[in-house]
Automatic annotation (TrEMBL):
Keyword field: Actin capping, Actin-binding, Calcium, Cytoplasm, Cytoskeleton, Repeat
Organism: Cyprinus carpio (Common carp)
Coiled coil: none
Record keyword Cytoplasm present: yes
Top-level taxon of origin: Eukaryota
Repeat among keywords: yes
Protein name: Villin-like
One cellular component term from this protein's GO annotations in UniProt: cytoplasm
Location in or out of the cell: Cytoplasm, Cytoskeleton
Assigned protein family: Belongs to the villin/gelsolin family.
Gelsolin-like domain sequence ranges: 2-78, 121-189, 240-317, 384-463, 505-571, 609-683
Annotated GO biological process: actin filament severing; actin polymerization or depolymerization; barbed-end actin filament capping
MF (Gene Ontology): actin filament binding; phosphatidylinositol-4,5-bisphosphate binding
Location (main, coarse): cytoplasm
Amino acid sequence: MVPVPEQAHGNFFEGDCYIILNVSNSTSQSTDIHYWIGNTSSQDEQGAAAIYVTQLDKYLGGSPVQYREVQGCESAKFKSYFKNGLIYKKGGAGSGFTHVETNTFNIQRLLHVKGTKHVTAREVEVSWSSFNLGDIFLLDLGKAIIQWNGPQSNRQEKLKAVLLAQDIRDRERGGRAQIGVIEGGQEEASPELMKLMISVLGQRTGHLKESIPDDKPDQNQTSIIKLYHVSDASGQLLVQEVATSPLTQDLLSSSDCYILDQGGSSVMVWKGKAASDEERSSALSRAVVSGFIKAKNYPSNTKVEVMSEGGESAMFKHLFKSWKEKRQTQGLGRTNSVGKIAKVDQVKFDVMELHAQPKLAAQERMVDDASGHIQVWRIENLELKEVNPSTFGQFYGGDCYLVLYTYNRANKQQYILYMWQGRHATQDEVTACAYQAVNLDNKYNGAPTQVRVVMGKEPRHFLAIFKGRLIIFEVIGGTGRPGVVNPDPGARLFQVRGTHEMNTKATEVPGRASSLNTNDVFLLKTHQNVFLWYGKGCSGDEREMGKAVADLLSEQDKQIVMEGQEPAAFWVALGGKAPYATDKRLEKEVPPHEPRLFECSNQTGRFLMTEVADFTQDDLDEDDVMLLDTWEEIFLWIGNSANQYETQESYNSAVEYLKTHPAGRDPGTPITTVKQGHEPPTFTGWFNAWDAHKWSVMFKLANSFSII
């Protein structure tokens, strides 16, 4: 292994193999090893790279995740290390070439640039025959770099190519080179630059080739996930299918190795800590060389990841329905420390921490302290009907509502528009709710952040703005419309959950004994009595919030009932005794899934969703729609220049994304729409060092197509 100088990072000779070590600066401190295989590298070089990776992994304690990368088919994570793009160079170390000679100007090469999010540039023949109408080409002449933009290329591709040209100038020429840009459809506007190009390429004859289609969309999402068990218990290595998606973590045994197959789009190898040396050493070679990939007839450039127990990649965890880290313990609450869950007492969330820690604001899904202004409308006859403030917080399962929340941030009014959809609302009402949300959004010039809220999946901030007064009435056909007589359900049972006014809601449940839960407070309301039932596992704070909600639901005197001391009238109202949940609840932990960002674009002529690895704010493309998956919530970020088709298809794709997710995601997960320039902290907190003024700088750069 020979170190590559830093100024040459991103340059790869096609005849060589490379090893890339990346240590993340995040709280997880994850380590990744990639070995890159050039298209014309020898078998000996490829074998040596695999051996060195194994040795490096062992030296680092077996914790790194290993990735096999093939030229032209690199993973998004690999490409994310080289933000300005990859450059493929002809030849290799054996031919005597050096990676970069800084300040050398005796150069003549043509780079074919492709991609909008992850850019690659390949050395091609210095000839007009290499050009096409849809891509961008850099003619590098040492002291001058000419960027030729194909007539069918888009603005984002042009911007990325400029950044690559600047990177070459600054790293390889010490900043001493001029960059010129020619628009392929308006060559006559750049006569001096065209004269220079013709002096190198000669006079162009004939027509240029048509554009080459960009990469096809990643099929990882919809492919069938299968898990295979690798074992030598019988004396020889056997690979056997054990499960298909959705997968659960308990399928993995520490004493064995496993292969996770994403339908051939990628293969992941998991090595248990207690697996035999034979299994651990053979798992990678079997997956890559002799067995699995060949037996499946997958292409030789199939992506491969290898990881040890405890060092799983974020993508691997995302394929499981739930994932719990070994170091985590279950408890009755979540601590506000970033990244870890511990057994702590529930305390009221301090909103001031949101400003000090943007990431915490995102994780807690709180934009402020919920002290803003609320307006509520109900959908009646497909139109908006304002709700009386005295009934704010009361939602009926047969209705749809719009809730506009107004708050101040940095002396500027911000808006969140919640679209609450009752479980029993008609499809016409759901559609009308979405339509009226667009009208209301337009009234505020597109400033509101839109959040779809499915009944029973209310986010924390939604609970907080109603200050402990959130009550959901479940009765089928029930509505909050004035003058409408709702069906008489007889006894009504409400489950109350929460420890303070910022996290409490009451939900109507079926009025029978099996609905009870030993961990919670319940309110049973009949025509004659009102019972407040305290389960053995509820806390004093939960009891206090139960009393407060009971006063909202009824002015009658409440009869306190302790679990195990119920009067006969209590059971009669519920239709008799029946078994119910009596296990002490350990609050469901949020799986430690890393957020994922996808670009949603039809710039290539068809709608594609492309994942962006190790994303930053720079990856938000104002020409497109971006989908941010934080597991508990889906954000759709709408760029200022995104077209209507992308916006519409992105929402449909977000719904489909949840339905088809291999981990069996909840289709009711909130989907929040965020406009560029109006991002709430629950969104920006997932990005390091968010810059609210970035877009104006990017606009100036995108329009600087001249000598730079």
